[in-house]
Amino acid sequence: MTLEEEFLGPLDKAAKKRDKARKKTEKQREKRRLIREEKEREAERERERKREEEKRQAEEKRRQEYEEKRKEEPPETPLDTEPFRGVSMKEIPILTQDELNELSRTYREDESTSFNFDSLPQIYTEPEAPAQELSEEVLTPFSYTELDDLIVEPRIMQVGPEHLTMDRLRELLSADKHIRLGPGEYEIDFTFKILKGTTLELEANTTIYFGETASLTIEGTLRAISHSDKTPIQLRPKNQRWGNLSIIGYGASESILKNVFIHGGSGRKVSMTLGGGLYIKNSDPTIESCIIAENHADHGGGIYIDSADPKIIDTYISNNRAEKDGGGMHCSYCDSRLYKVLFEGNRAGGLGGGICLQSASLTLDDCGIQENQAQKGGGIAVLMCSPKIIGTVVSENTAHETGGGIYVTRSSSPEIQEEYVTDNYPNNID
Q: What is the mean pLDDT of residues 401-415?
């Protein structure tokens, strides 16, 4: 196996598993949709039968009331009136020729037998206005000359592939507030921090290899955007493990990750490791079309979210491991919406193999939670919160104790569409 094949292997493997999981989830969702629609049609037919029966009973009641009323009323007597006799021809006056001539004399000028039509009422017709010539004014394109003078582009420091040392990064940061890493491979052996007010831009087809103790912390803005999953941006270890990507503070809320592959992270060290691949605190970044795979930490093997509301869309979270809670993701004090996010093959030694929600008003919309494992809550663990789990397939998850699909504590009241929670072991919801 070549070095290139060795490094591309995890990404290709994760992408194939993601595509397979998507198809499986859609198949299960389609099956549930057909069952739900059949139930809705049957319910509608039952409602229609009830409406017809109520209508028939109302008609019968009106008919009976009418019959009873007719029996109580006296018979009607015909009115004693004269029949209509019409108009006699004798009542219509007949004019002689002389009388007709006298009536028409007002429209004559003399004794001739011809009418003078000039004396009749005339109809006034306003003459047509002369046609106005159309203006030949020519519209020219708007000139941006003055506008351009008002726009000042920040100077961007473009960096090519290289081994980024601490001194080199300090040089770049002191030279400008916007660093762009072009396509290629980079190596970092230390914790790289982007401060508030500074932007780090990663272009498509950029790969950063981190040393075992290296991490990337964003307090400013990270724009890691690729418009194709064929040219992703990759954050991965140079050897076996690295730290993680941390997005911290409201100054980092404009950060965007799109088509980013985060692999082999081991979390952010606080009192314990949090967020194997990605750690988000007090920030609201956008995560779209990403793959978070094969990371591990004490809590939140793939992602750890604390007091933050990130937007996570169309993202695949797979084969991550938490020693304690939240194999794929751990969320606390967040009000996020996860849309079309797939959790597959994640494991937790404690609660929530796929995702652990603690005091989090999260919405899982059209997601997939499948083949995850935990002690309790193989798919999802819900602790002291009331999330909305809508149109989300929770299937084939395993709990060693209880709550194979979803484990819910007594202080929680989640909104769950139970028809999507199936085939979990040892039970679906507890």
A: 93
pLDDT band at 62 (very low <50, low <70, confident <90, very high): confident
Per residue, what are the HEC states of the chain? CCHHHHHHHHHHHHHHHHHHHHHHHHHHHHHHHHHHHHHHHHHHHHHHHHHHHHHHHHHHHHHHHHHHHHHHCCCCCCCCCCCCCCCCHHHCCCCCHHHHHHHHHHHCCCCCCCCCHHHCCCCCCCCCCCCCCCCCCCCCCCCCHHHHHHCCCCCCEEECCCECCHHHHHHHHHHCCEEEECCEEEEECCEEEECCCCEEEECCCEEEEECCCCEEEECCEEEEECCCCCCCEEEEECCCCECCEEEECHHHCCCEEECEEEECECCEECCCEECCCEEEECCCCEEECCEEECCEECECCCEEEECCCCEEECCEEECCEECCCCCCEEEECCCCEEECCEEECCEECCECCCEEEECCCCEEECCEEECCEEEECCCEEEECCCCEEECCEEECCEEEEECCCEEECCCCCCEECHHHEECCECCCEC
Report the alpha-carbon distance of residue 24 to residue 19 in Å, rounded. Answer: 9
pTM, full prediction: 0.71
Radius of gyration of the chain (CA): 41
pLDDT in tens, 319-371: 999 999 999 999 999 999 999 999 999 999 999 999 999 999 899 999 999 99
The larger pLDDT score, comparing residue 237 to residue 61, is at 237
Question: Residue 17 has which token pair?
Answer: 């598993």
- pLDDT class of 427 with cuts at 50, 70, 90: very high
* Sequence ranges of the domains in the chain: 340-430
Which amino acid, 213? T
Closest by CA to 303, choosing from 351, 354, 345, 252, is: 354
- CB-count burial class (<10 Å; 0-12, 13-18, 19+) for 311: middle
CA distance 248 to 284: 9
Cα 385 to the center of its chain, rounded Å: 22
Residue 241 sits at φ, ψ, to 5 deg, of: -140, 160
CB atoms near residue 177 (< 10 Å): 17
pLDDT of 128 higher than 60: no
- Is 424 within 8 Å of 401 (Cβ atoms)? no
**Two tokens, residue 218:** 């964003």
